[in-house]
Amino acid sequence: MLVNVSYNNKAISRNIDETVGKPFPLKDRWKMGGIGSPKLIITETSITIQNLLILDNNTNCCNIEMRPGGIIVGFRSLLESYALVIPYYKLTIYKGDLGIYSIYRDHYFIKVKADTKAIQKYFRKLLDYKADNAPTSIEDL
Predict the structure, then answer these.
(1) CATH of 2-133, one of 1.10.3210.10, 2.30.29.30, 1.10.10.10, 2.40.50.40
(2) What φ, ψ does residue 68 adopt, rounded to 5°?
(3) CA 18 to CA 16: how far, in whole Å?
(4) Which helix (H) or strand (E) segment is 16 a member of?
(5) Quick check: 89 and 27 in contact, CB under 8 A?
(6) How far from chain centre, in Å, is Cα 86?
(7) Does residue 140 register a pLDDT over 70?
(8) How far is CA 93 from the centre of its chain?
């Protein structure tokens, strides 16, 4: 779900909270070592997101926020803030070419450059959290 989060809209906030859960409490954030990613440089996106990013001449960058039920990928275009809300059961992450991570949800995708150890460590934390909190699959039974 791609939404404009520039303005405080209770319906959108409620919808995001229902989809990926409320933000982690401060105690859990400390235990996890933070829930936000470093600045991620966008290399490629799906056509819908690309149409938003092409409107300005700034460097295309984003960040990821972990939630109990999924992630929120945030980015800016012109003076607007957008969020791609992805629950864990629809989240697919691929490690592609040299230092490129691809984040997929249905027909949306964002490819980001992972050229530092901090970014790679964050994606490892994200994948570990997703695996630890995933529901039991049918193969495990």
Answers:
(1) 2.30.29.30
(2) -60, -30
(3) 5
(4) helix 10-20
(5) no
(6) 7
(7) no
(8) 10
From the number of C-beta atoms within 10 Å of its C-beta (0-12, 13-18, 19+), residue 75 rates as buried
What are the tens digits of pLDDT across the range 8-33?
999 999 999 999 999 999 999 999 99
Q: 141 Cβ partners below 8 Å, 6+ apart?
A: none
Angle at CA of residue 71, ends 68 and 73, nearest 5° = 155
Q: Does the reported pTM lie above 0.85? A: yes
What the block records as the tokens of 103 is: 């984040």
Residue 135 token pair: 């529901």
Q: What is the 3-state secondary structure (H, E, C) of 61-127?
A: EEEEEEECCEEEEEEEECCEEEEEEEEHHHCEEEECCCCEEEEEECCEEEEEECCCHHHHHHHHHHH
CA dihedral 118, 87, 137, 25 (to 10 degrees): 70
Residue 122 Cα distances to 1, 6, 54, 104, 128, angstroms: 23, 26, 27, 17, 10
Q: For the purposes of burial, counting CB atoms within 10 Å of the CB of 67, is it exposed (0-12), middle (13-18) or buried (19 or more)?
A: buried
